[in-house]
Amino acid sequence: MDKKGQLKENTLGVIIAVIGIVIVFGGAGFLLYNYFTLSSEQRQEEAKGLLDVLGAKLEKLEEGKNSSFLVKGPCEGNSLGDLCYWYLTGWSVGEQDRPQRCFFNSCICVCKAENKESSINKRELVEACQNGETGYCKAVSTEKIEVSSVQKVDGDIIAYKEGFDVRGPKKDAVKPFISFRTNLIELMLQRNPGGLNISRV
Amino acid sequence: MIKGEKKDVKWGKRGALEASETGEWTLFIIAAVILLAFVGILYALLKGSSEDDICKLSVLGRATTPISETQQAIPLKCVAKKVCFNDGRGKCEESLLGEKGVKEIKLPKVDVENEEALEKAAELIEEESARKMYECWKTMGEGKLDLFNGVKVSFGIDPVRTTCVICSRLVIDKNVPLEVLERVDVNDYMKTHPVTSGSSITYLQAFTGSKDVKGYAKFNEEVFKVDDNGSFDNSKLVEQNENIAKGLKDKRDREIAETAKLDVGPSSGRENRELAFVFMQIKPKSYSEVLGNMAKTGGLVVGSTFMTPVVKPVRMLTTKILWNPVGIIATGVAGVGIAGYGAYNVKQGQLTAAGYCGEFTTKEKEEEKRKGCSMVQGLNYNKEEINALCASIQGRLYE
Prior knowledge:
The complex is a heterodimer. In chain A, the strands form 3 sheets. Chain A has a 5-stranded mixed β-sheet, covered by helices on one side. In chain A, strands 4-3-2-9 form a 4-stranded antiparallel β-sheet. Chain A has one domain. Chain A is about 35% helix and about 30% strand. In chain A, β10 and β11 form a beta hairpin. Chain A has helices spanning about 1-60, 120-130, and strands spanning about 65-70, 85-90, 105-110, 135-140, 145-150, 155-160, 165-170, 175, 180, 185-190, 195-200. The radius of gyration of chain A is 26 Å and the shape is elongated. Chain A contains 2 helices and 11 strands, in the order αβββαββββββββ. Chain A is of the alpha+beta class. The longest helix of chain A has about 60 residues, at about 1-60. Helix content of chain B is about 50%, strand content about 10%. Chain B contains 15 helices and 7 strands. The longest helix of chain B has about 40 residues, at about 10-50. Chain B is globular, with a radius of gyration of 29 Å. Classes of the chains: A alpha+beta, B alpha/beta. At the A-B interface, α1, β1 and β10 of A face α1, β3, α9, α10 and α15 of B.
């Protein structure tokens, strides 16, 4: 009788304690979750905002005309050594090896990859852009779209052949993507009879 | 027991104990509910507020983070505002085609022979420009808040660099005569006009009000002027690119960054009809702050190896190193090396700060220039000018 009495008398305290623990730990968990996802949500919104503006400008661009505008990529970090791993790229509707989300239309995409500008290739960008968390794509109405940037190399290019280095002639490397920087880059948009071109000025 | 006396000490004790426990828990829960309600209200405010309020809240949220090195995890939810000045004949399509949230300000249609009309139109541009510049300054904390701290700078891993937020873009439609733009003098307007109609403080006084705050405002004289070929001094941008290249470890990355300077060409013969108001801040750490952070972290790491029972092998290894003469010397040399690298980065950061802030400081002492500053600048909205000021840009350009 005594023990039963004890349980009854402690029940309220136990209930209040449980409610308190749930509120405190649940609230802390909620805050931590928001804290850590705030930054990635911001990058997501930036990437989508950029694609929306780019898409709108491309749609309004008349044939034979060009237009340029400044963009800032959804880059992270503001330290000297921080590189930006975000890229702008695109695929034409007939192109092989493109993300599934670009299957029915030509598209432009803003994606985050694992590799730096110097070592990334288009195949990696396909994977990055296919991933819903690191890639955002927007359909465009033309059949052909080309995204490019020129890497000017001020010096000799080293080519690797069969185990030894070969110094080749100077040449500019045209890449099928545009890498963002932590400050501004300028995009040039051109609409030709053949399709749309986006390049970095 | 005495007749009439309440039943017993034993029952009374138990009752008192439970009451106090329940009371403490209740108070605890009330406090937690109030805290969560506060967070919930803040969250709701962020969701339902205007862009300005959201931006201000995010600035405050970042500046008041208890651990300043984690500031960068809190994004600045600030979107650049867009204003189009037109006289009804265009909507700034050259610059703002396809962009949302553009505020239009109607200028009177002017005859270029009519000086009064030209001055009136120019004054409307000056008024809005001064207002936008002041709003930028207020929203970003008036230079009183440190917004761009990072772990790498706090620990001397990288030198500090300039970080900016583009607050607004103002565009003058191509149909507005150039003669209007030539009469725009925002610096003079800010010296002579009050911040609000009833205020006695001018815009310029408002910017430079507090002597403790190293804050400055500058409206670039070259804004709205037509560029002559080669007139833009790109030396700062070249230097910035070279610094970035030096900071990069991979040879190929350095090649790419060094040749980025080839992207920097002077604008030629171009009309500048778009300006940006940019908030910039550079706040290098001092030697004592960086070395102190390193020492604290080093001590914490070493101390924790002695306190954590799980990593016994690590603790044993640490003990062997610290109690061995060779180990002590090696640890000392490594410590001096790391501290030296950190001190080098501090110096680089302070020199960079002096370069950007030096023209605004009246005191001749180098120390003042090297402490950094905050400023709002009106610049032509082009890549060359903005990147010369801003090594890094935060906030958003587009909604």
